[in-house]
């Protein structure tokens, strides 16, 4: 039971990382990764407690999604840096073609 509480604590830290820090894109991406990994942790712990392997399969799927999210997020950061010379969040609205 304490491991599930640890997973919820990690999830809350990830949510707080997104809410508190809205200026730094890298910290926001790290907070999203923390959210996904905490969900994986909870799935694996409950899978082990219930003696069911299905949670581990879902955790593997979430890891694949998290890896794709990291690759796309970092490629967007590189494109943002090449366009504006900075990765500040305030320039993201300038990418719209209005």
Describe what this molecule looks like in 3D.
The chain has 3 helices and no strands. By secondary structure, the protein is mostly helical. The protein starts with a helix and ends in a 14-residue tail after the last helix.
Short description:
With 98 residues, this protein is mainly α. The chain has three helices and no strands.
Q: What can be said about the biggest beta sheet?
A: none
Poorly predicted parts:
none
From N to C, what is the helix and strand string?
Answer: HHH
Helix content: over 70%
Q: Which structural category fits the helices and strands?
A: mainly alpha
> What's the overall geometry?
elongated
- Quaternary organisation: single chain
Task: Bin the strand percentage.
Answer: under 5%
In whole angstroms, how far apart are the ends?
A: 51 Å
Strand runs, count: 0
**How much is the average pLDDT?**
88
Tally of alpha and pi helices: 3
CA-based gyration radius: 17 Å
């Amino acid at each position: 039971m304490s491991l599930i509480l640890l997973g919820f604590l990690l999830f809350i830290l990830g949510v707080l990382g997104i809410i508190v820090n809205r200026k730094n894109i890298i910290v926001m991406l790290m907070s999203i990764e923390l959210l996904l990994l905490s969900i994986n942790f909870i799935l694996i712990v409950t899978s082990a407690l219930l003696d069911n392997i299905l949670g581990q399969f879902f955790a593997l799927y979430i890891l694949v999604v998290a890896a794709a999210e990291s690759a796309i997020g970092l490629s967007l950061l590189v494109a943002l840096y090449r366009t504006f010379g900075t990765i500040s969040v305030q320039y993201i609205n300038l990418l719209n073609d209005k």
